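Hey L., structure's done. Input below.
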Amino acid sequence: MRSGQDYLESLRDGRTVWLDGELVKDVTEHPAFRNTARSMAHLYDLARDPELRDVLTVRPEGQDRPVLRAYHVPRTHAELIERRRAFKTWSEASFGFLGRSPDYMAAGIAGFVSAPDVFAGEAFDGRPNLAAYHRRMAEGHLYPAFTITNPQIDRTRAAGEQVQDDLYVRVVKERDGGIVVRGAKMIGTGAVFGDEVVVGTIEPLPRQDVQYALSFSVPLDTPGLKFVSRTSYEGRARSVFDNPLSARFDENDALLVCDDVFVPWERVLTYRDVDTTFGMWWLTPAYNNFVHQAATRFWTKLEFLTGLAVLITRSNNTYDLPPVRMQLGRLMGWLNIAKSMVLAAEAAYERVPGEGGAVHINREIASAHRAMAGDLYPKVLAEIKLLAGGGLIQLPASGHDLRHPELGPLVAKYVRSSGTPAEQRVKLLKLAWDALGSEFAARHEQYERFYHGAPHVYLPGIVRDGDPDLLAAFTQSCLDGYDLDGPDDLPGGAGAPHGSH
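Output:
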C-alpha cells in the first residue's frame, strides 16, 4: 500500500496553486496547506497499519494487491457494512471534519463502474476509459478530487447563453490525440490535495449545450490547469493548541480554471453528450455512494460534537442540571437519528440493474439524509453554543498566555472552573470555538448545508426518489373504507396497499 510519505512526495509535482496572490511552490511545506496534507497522509498510513489493514483495504478477486475498500464494488449487505466501517475509520481520524477525504470520490468511481453502460453515448463510448480509470486509481491508491459545479455567474441562463462562452468548462478544439478545454468550475473541495481531478457537470444541460457536456480526469500538474484557493484557515491558525481543528483539517476549497488544457482521449469519460454527462452521477450508484461516505462522516461528526457538549457541561459543572440533561438528550437523539439512517439505508439496500450484481444503499433514505443533515447541523451548533455560554469567547488570545510570567497567574485564577484548571479549560474551549464559532466553523456550517446541493434541488429529489403515489394510495385506502351511507362502528379501514411502508 501507498504510504503517507509516498502521498506527500506525489504532491510535489509542480501543480499550479494560487493563494493570496502567491504561486504556491510546494503544498506540503506551505503554511497554508502542510498540516492538512499530513492529515491526508495519515489516512494512507492507517491503511498500512496491520490492525486496520483489513478494515480499510480489500484484495479484489483475481488480484494479488489490496486496494482501498472505497474503490471496491460491494455486492452484498455485508460488503456495504464493511465499506461503511472503512468510511468510519477514516472519518474518525479527522473527527468528521475532512469531508472530501480520498474515499469520497473513490466511492463515486466504484459507483461508475457498477453501471458502465451509462457511459456508452451515441457518438462516444466511455466504457473502456472508465475501466482503465478505475483500475489506475484503485491500483495506485490515488486520491481523486473533483469539480463538477459551474460558477455562479448567471443561474437564470444556460451554459451557452452566458455573456462569455468560456465561463464554464467546454471543448474549444479537437486534436488527433485528445481535446482542448477552457473555462472554470467551482468548488474544488480538497482538490489541491488530490492526485487527479475529475471535471464534469452534475447539473442537467439542454441539448444545445453539447460543447459543455463532457467529463474527464487529469493529473493536477497538467499544463494550463490552475487552482485559485480561498483563504486558508490553516494559514491563519496560531497553533494547534489555539486552533486544533483548523490547523490540521482545513481541506480547502479552490476555483479550478482550465486555460486551454489538453485532455488525451483516454482520459475522457463522457463527450458531447448531455445524457451520459448527467447520467454518470444519477443513473449509476455514484451519488448514493457519496451519501454513504458523507452520512457516515456526518454521524461521526455528531459524535464528536455531542462529546464536546458533554465535556463543556462537565467543565461548567452543569452536567447534572435537568435542563442541561434535556439539551444533551436532544443532541444524543439527533446523533442517533443520523446513525440510524446510515444503518437503515444499508439494510434496505438496492441492487444495481444488470449482470454485475452490485448493490448500493437505499436511494430514498439517501435522498432524505441530504435534507436531514443540512437542516440539523445548524441546530446542533446552536444547542452547544447555548450550553457553552460566554466562556466560549472569554478566552486568552493565545495558549502562550498561560506560560507568561505576568499573565499566567491571572489566567490561572480567572479562566477556570471548579475541578477544571485553567490550562485544561482553555484547551477545551479553544477546541469548542474552532468547532462552533471560528471562521473555520462557519465554513463547515455552510458546507454541511450545501455540499449536497441547495434545498430547492434536494427537497424535490426526495419526491423523485420516493414513491408519493404509494403514500397517497395508503391514505386513499382509509378514505375508501367509509362513506356517508356506510357503517361507522368498524374497528379499522380497508388496510394498507401491498408494498406500503
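The CA atoms of residues 26 and 34 lie 9 Å apart. The mean pLDDT is 94.

-- N.
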